[in-house]
Amino acid sequence: MKKLISIAGLLFLVTSGLVFADDDNEIMIEQSGDTLTLYIDQIGYGNKIGLDDFSGTGSDMTIVGSNLTFDIDMVGNQNLIYGPIDMDSSSLVFSLTGDSNEVDWNIGYIGSSDDSDYNFSITGDSNTFDIDQGYVYSAERLDADLVLVGSYNIFDLDFEADDSVWTFDITGDSNDINTLQNDGAQELIFDFVGDSGDIDINQISGTCAQNAGVGCSTPNAVINLDITSDNATIQINQKDAPGDS
Amino acid sequence: MLLFKLIKKTHLGILNLLFISGISFADSIGDIVESTGISQIVRNNEEIVLSGNIVPVELNDEAKTGNGRMLIEFLDKAQLSLKEHSEVLIDEIYYDPDPSLSKMSMKFTMGTARFASGRLGLVNKANIDIKTPTASIAVRGTDFTTTVDELGRSLIILLPDENGDPSGEIIVSNQGGVVTLNEAYAATMVSSLDSSPTQSIKVNGITAATIDNMFIVSPPEEVEDRIKEELADEQDQDRGLLDGDFLEFTELEEDELEEDELNDFNELDIDELDVEYLVDVLDIIDSSDLFDNLGEFDIKGAARGFNEQSQYNVYLEDGNLVLYRNVNGKIRIKIGAGGNFTLNTITPTWDGIITGNEGEDILIYINQVN
Known about the structure:
Shape of chain A: globular
Strand content of chain A: over 45%
Distance between the termini of chain B: 58 Å
Number of strands of chain A: 20
Oligomer: heterodimer
Helix content of chain A: under 10%
CATH architecture of the largest domain in chain B: Sandwich
Number of domains of chain A: 1
Largest sheet of chain B: 15 strands, mixed
Shape of chain B: globular
């Protein structure tokens, strides 16, 4: 059964385990089941989306299901989004406008999250993203896009999953971006415009390990990096095993 | 005589020990045997001020003189002397028991320096590579000077041997052309990377001792005359609108497509089959000699098209520079038009540095391990 939930600002309904807390604008989600369509529009300062704990631990927002559609739109500063997410064949559209926001998601925490499609659009400064795809369980065949316009943002993106394709479009100065793509075929398309960026790109087990020295016409590790910058440091590691270096 | 033979055998024995199956020297590659006045070695960003003592020289040392002079003697007895206000980077020196595998590479970046190749013959002259900011010098002789000004303009003079005969032959080249110097005191001036060296001209009335930085302020008369002549020739060839003969219009005869094919390596020209997976580490060739100009990029360590050593494909795309490599992992880097960059690549098949517009600003490290 398809559920449609739309939340605007502080207003709204509670269905299937959605509860509003007392302080700030907190949206607590504990959801299970398939084919959820969730729209959240939060406007204001200090908004939070999670369960009942915004410390970034595992008891935050819990979402489990498949064929889910999330559309989260946050406008404001110092917003928080935390939680473990398990969602197969799901679509996530996440738009954030504001500064000093924090996003900490563990995807594939207690179940698989395969075949997902994420679209992040971030406009603002000093935001912190910590996303772990395939945190425990499988989270393969991810197609994710990130458009970031802003400075002093910190991104730590780990993808311990096969077959992920990431498209980054970063515009801004002094951004610190750390990516890890682990297992199987990995592709990263990275368009970077800005000064003083610090970018680390790690692709592991994506090269032609089985055919090393014999030839590999279609390597599994692909990095496509466009840079326009007056000052940036970029470290790219492509290797077949975590122990290699 | 017996004593001489003993000394010689001892010396060769030391050299053999140093070779140890072709391992490059990790530490000293020579000594500063003389230094006067203010001079120093810059090593790992630290300045070592010389005070007249014999100081070992190491790879990547930068020899600098202020109001002083310096004489360096390398292990093969090659000598490098610097006059006042001069700088030389000792880029690469590798001694192998087989001289054809030995290598010596230096950059003369400022002032007046003199190089005389080693009499021990430990490095084939073909493997000696001297660069100035605007020229490369291939050594087939033994003794020459370079005088480089702050703009990189380089005056190169072949010196005579002890009999007054030319000490051999040196070939000066850059993107603009090639000139061979094979007369004692034959000289050429190179003004920029893409302007051809002047034709060889013999300078009279000088000796090795009189060649110094005064030539920056006042080049030898013969050289100045040569520069003026060649400048006049160029102007004659570009005589302005009224001098044009419109009957000689031949634009329609040009095949633009053919020109593109010849000059513009692009993405469509990439041949994935060019990739070499089974590179013998011993065959890895230094690519530091490569250079090219593409659009707004002055590239060193690579050239447009497919680079066999690094296996990078290099081309322009809408004014941006693309470096594409597909060996076990696919990496494509596009640098915005005119950007400065240093690309440091470490892979099982090639290690090297490619720079654009003198490097840095955008610093990219690639570490690929299979």
